[in-house]
């Protein structure tokens, strides 16, 4: 049985589901394969309806969902309510993506002459890969779990989902799944568009199943790399989209430090301790200018952290990993503790905020790796060159943040250019925690931030992970997908590339 | 030393270059990394100029290039002249892609309120990965080798190329490289945008180098999978785009067989023997309706193949592999030789066309795998269900071809639906050999056709393999790439997605 545990007490509250057997997994694969045909047959409009129906079903169960998730994750009802809103918005936004239709990259090249001789009629668009696996993360029980962005984008693409339930919130997963299934049924669609598996072993088996055509994963580098290696070494390898997290840097340029150090200290403290630091976009290191302005920021951080208290972390494993990770960091040569929040009580799994300072020449090994939880390391830089060298030492990441004012113009431009080469998102005069769901979002980055930097797990283009191109050569009109016909029946507004030119379908 | 050998004699003509040492490879990586910055700084327009200059430089050397390539590949001056034309067109088409700019997927979400609260200003586009490796194929010494589609699309994207020289045409590779370098210099660009390495060991090392960010490969399943596994198991894995080839099926529906069997026999013979069968898109198996109409097609194929003679193959390895492969096929139970072209002379490396027939229940193992060279296997099907089952047995491929007439309407629609799920290109009433360079082309398919079915190695979208998304949050206008500014200086005609809506930049 799978235990649902309350992080505030560390005690098991109930048992949820059982580990999935190999034969049950076989059955789920067969059902997902059948559901794939149904999702294709639904077409864009039908799948948009499915997603909106699922969002409505989640909304209907809001009170229960938030209560169960809070009991399993201790993230608080306010945050979880917001996360559920975001999760519903995500489903609705992918419905908009389907209505828009441009994600199909519909392309028509009419037959004609070319410098190489006659060319046949060629029509290209993106088609779903087939059933996919989704591995949710502990820290977002809705937005990056069973009903989250991977599921929303995969269903939008036309790919049924088999979701591995995260052990830190199984009851939330089951309740979310019930909502998604109710949404599917209300839309007249088979419930097999989304199924669950339980247990680590079933998760590994899932990645190996021939019926599974791609994997979306959000979690740790260790588990992510393990599953990536399995996906890549299959007889028939499949894409593995692992959002693994990394150490995100935040640089304060000298002018910004002098101008608004107090605001930066306040914002930075809030950012690295938000949700008990359990964000993959958490700034893990702050690079401050040596001297009084940087020193003032450090003082501001120190005062704030000293006034804070421990929070409940997501699971025993998370709390232990945070304790071990911070013990390692504290013990490194050249590292000093600046401030530590008050510890938690005897009950539950807690983590206290921690502020460290590291000598610049100590930055190597564990200091360049993510430590999940409310810890921030500050490092002083002494010159522009020194800063750029330090940043190179931290390697690729999901985000890179720069605080700069007018006085920093030349300086900050060089930092910006260098950061852009190694992160998925550059944040200017802001804080990286929190990832907007938008057309323009990129959530990902060069390894180890993700296993596949060409894609995103947040934002509308996340759908691109679940589709592959196909070309149809001289295929008769009646067999073409509607979006590739000369005169589509239901594609007003769709932008296609026709004979090389982007062209909207007009009625 | 690397030997350049004439396939018409099997004798070494000259020695070309030396195997690349590890230290030389290190140096090439450093130079490629520096060149990457220059390619980014050039911008879209600058890179378009570079590609056009390279195309012009290839044209200037046309006579020499074709002569050397013919001497090394025996493909004939006419075919090679056409291939060089295509190669130049490819470079020019990617210049058009750069002028168009839509490949950047430029996206602007202005700051604003959302159901989840305020959202920052977010701007997304695709940026180059950095230096990449290209492994050309033996069978297209221009179009899929040093100056080919992988190189053209990578340079367009802004990624310097280190190309592994194919042992079957080293002199052509060196001459092509000289032309590309001359084109770069004429455009005022560093010659380090393209460099060569020689030798298998250097090729393997190239895939392991941290400076290399992705690999384009066209070649055999064995070598492709080996390099894919290396790319995937690096400490920092990189995308590997392996176009490996597969067994492409051609189905003749009953109505088409009855109506125009003679035309199909003629076209099919030409398609599987074109270029001595050395195409990855070659139809390797023809599925014919049992009965007189299918029998007539088989007779037409038989007569034509008996009248043909052996041709020179690309290399000793290719000829040996064809000989071994066809010996295996001939020896399988349930396989009969229908016709065999006249053998070659004593000199050089030849392969004779071969037509086989296989019993339907013999279709397994080697009969479901690609045999590179001018061999075609015919198989009879007895019903629609039988055909669909046979097709499933052949697995994924680059292409799937259907010949169908009006009488085949329901039948052919089911074949079409099933094929679409497992190939990259469906060809209707045509022949798959030859891949048009176009916006609408997809050249790729589910494994083992390629290692990455989400991408193409031919056509304008091949550029997507070398770019990754980045989001820029609240970044000041002057630091944004021109394409993401509110008022771009040089982007008239560029279509961007602004606040969710595709919007052209107007002057």
Strand content of chain A: 15-25%
Name the overall outline of chain A. globular
Oligomeric state = homodimer
Report mean pLDDT of chain A, rounded to a whole number: 97
The CATH topology label of the largest domain in chain A is Aldehyde Dehydrogenase, Chain A, domain 1
Number of strands of chain A: 23
Largest interface: A-B, 79 and 79 residues
Tell me the CATH architecture of the largest domain in chain A.
3-Layer(aba) Sandwich
Rg over C-alpha atoms of chain A, rounded to the nearest angstrom: 24 Å
What structural class is derived from the secondary structure elements of chain A? alpha/beta
CATH superfamily of the largest domain in chain A, by name, is: Aldehyde Dehydrogenase, Chain A, domain 1
Determine the number of helices of chain A (DSSP H or I, runs of at least 4 residues).
12
Largest sheet of chain A, order of strands side by side?
15-17-18-13-12-19-20
Amount of helix of chain A: 25-40%
Task: Determine and state the CATH class of the largest domain in chain A.
Answer: Alpha Beta
What distance separates the N and C termini of chain A? 56 Å
Question: Could you say how many structural domains of chain A there are in total?
Answer: 2
Major sheet of chain A: size, sense and barrel closure? 7 strands, mixed
List the uncertain runs of chain A: none
């Amino acid at each position: 049985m799978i235990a649902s545990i309350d992080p505030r007490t560390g005690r098991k509250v109930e048992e949820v589901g059982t580990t999935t057997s190999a034969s049950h997994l076989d059955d789920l694969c067969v059902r997902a394969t059948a559901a794939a045909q149904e999702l294709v047959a639904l077409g864009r409009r039908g799948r948009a309806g499915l997603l909106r129906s699922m969002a409505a079903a989640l909304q209907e169960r809001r009170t229960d969902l938030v209560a169960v998730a809070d009991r399993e994750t201790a993230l608080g009802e306010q945050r979880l309510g917001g996360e559920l809103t975001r999760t519903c918005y995500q489903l609705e936004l992918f419905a908009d993506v389907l209505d828009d239709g441009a994600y199909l990259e519909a392309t028509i090249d009419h037959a004609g002459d070319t410098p190489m001789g006659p060319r046949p009629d060629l029509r290209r668009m993106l088609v779903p890969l087939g059933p996919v696996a989704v591995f949710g993360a502990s820290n977002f029980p809705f937005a990056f779990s069973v009903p989250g962005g991977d599921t929303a984008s995969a269903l939008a693409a036309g790919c049924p989902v088999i979701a591995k339930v995260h052990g830190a919130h199984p009851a939330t997963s089951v309740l979310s799944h019930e909502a998604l299934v109710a949404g599917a049924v209300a839309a007249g669609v088979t419930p097999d568009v989304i199924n669950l598996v339980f247990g680590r072993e079933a998760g590994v088996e899932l990645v190996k199943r021939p019926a599974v055509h791609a994997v979306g994963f959000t979690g740790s580098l260790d588990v992510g790399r393990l599953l990536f290696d399995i996906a890549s070494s299959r007889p028939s390898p499949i894409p593995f989209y692992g959002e693994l997290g990394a150490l995100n840097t935040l640089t304060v340029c000298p002018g910004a430090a002098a101008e608004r150090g107090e605001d930066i200290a306040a914002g930075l403290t809030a950012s690295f301790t938000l949700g008990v630091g359990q964000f993959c976009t958490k700034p893990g290191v702050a690079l401050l200018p040596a001297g009084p302005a940087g020193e003032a920021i450090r003082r501001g951080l120190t005062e704030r952290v000293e006034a804070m208290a421990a929070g409940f972390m997501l699971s025993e494993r998370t709390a232990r990993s945070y304790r071990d990770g911070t013990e390692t960091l504290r013990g490194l040569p050249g590292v000093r503790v600046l401030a530590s929040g008050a510890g938690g009580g005897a009950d539950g799994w807690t983590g206290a905020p921690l502020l460290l300072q590291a000598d610049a020449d100590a930055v190597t090994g564990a200091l360049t790796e993510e430590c999940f939880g409310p810890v921030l390391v500050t490092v002083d830089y002494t010159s522009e060159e020194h800063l750029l060298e330090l940043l190179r030492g931290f390697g690729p990441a999901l985000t890179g943040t720069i605080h700069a004012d007018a006085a920093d113009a030349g300086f900050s431009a060089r930092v910006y250019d260098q950061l852009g080469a190694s992160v998925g998102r550059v944040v200017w005069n802001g804080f990286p925690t929190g990832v907007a769901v938008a057309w323009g979002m990129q959530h990902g980055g060069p390894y180890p931030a993700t296993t596949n930097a060409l894609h995103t797990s947040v934002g509308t283009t996340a759908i691109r992970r679940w589709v592959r191109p196909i070309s149809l050569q001289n295929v008769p009109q009646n067999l073409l997908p509607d979006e590739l016909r000369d005169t589509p029946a239901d594609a007003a507004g769709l932008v296609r590339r026709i004979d090389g030119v982007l062209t909207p379908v007009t009625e």
